[in-house]
Specification:
about 140 residues, 6 helices, mainly alpha, two-stranded antiparallel sheet, about 50% helix, Arc Repressor Mutant, subunit A
């Protein structure tokens, strides 16, 4: 299940993309439009700034803005930054130890196919696609 944090991160990214012509957007403006508490929003924005997909500027005239154009943001990237890996089972995670049952696991192909569906879906949609309803 996708967490509230990841869903809110997508809403924030869409909001910033919709208002990108305005330059830096104050936290309070985003929070008000998206109906997210400023405190919770601040924790999400810190993650996005740390990952350098947003720029933050403190003080008068400050706020947040995208570091790239909307078509350069992949939805899967945004979700994984706030959610962690989208892998449906632990054995498919990039840092997973090699499973002793891998060669005889009847369910592994099922999980691999499900993993491919998730990644194919979220990693082929950009922020621009989301803005335009093209997904």
């Amino acid at each position: 299940m996708i967490s509230t944090k990841a869903r809110y991160a997508l809403r924030v990214m869409v909001d910033l993309a919709q208002h990108r012509e305005a330059g830096y957007i104050p936290l309070k403006d985003i929070a008000k439009r998206q109906e997210i508490s400023e405190k919770y929003l601040e924790t999400i924005l810190k993650v996005l700034v740390k990952a350098k997909i947003l720029k933050g500027l403190r003080g008068k005239g400050g706020g947040y803005m995208l570091t790239r154009s909307p078509e350069e943001y992949i939805i899967g990237e945004i979700i994984e930054l706030t959610e962690g890996p989208l892998d449906p089972v632990a054995c498919l995670m990039p840092d997973a130890e090699c499973c002793q049952r891998k060669d005889k696991c009847i369910t592994l192909p099922l999980w691999q196919k499900f993993d491919a569906l998730i990644h194919d879906f979220f990693y082929h949609i950009t922020l621009e696609d989301l803005l335009n309803g093209n997904y």
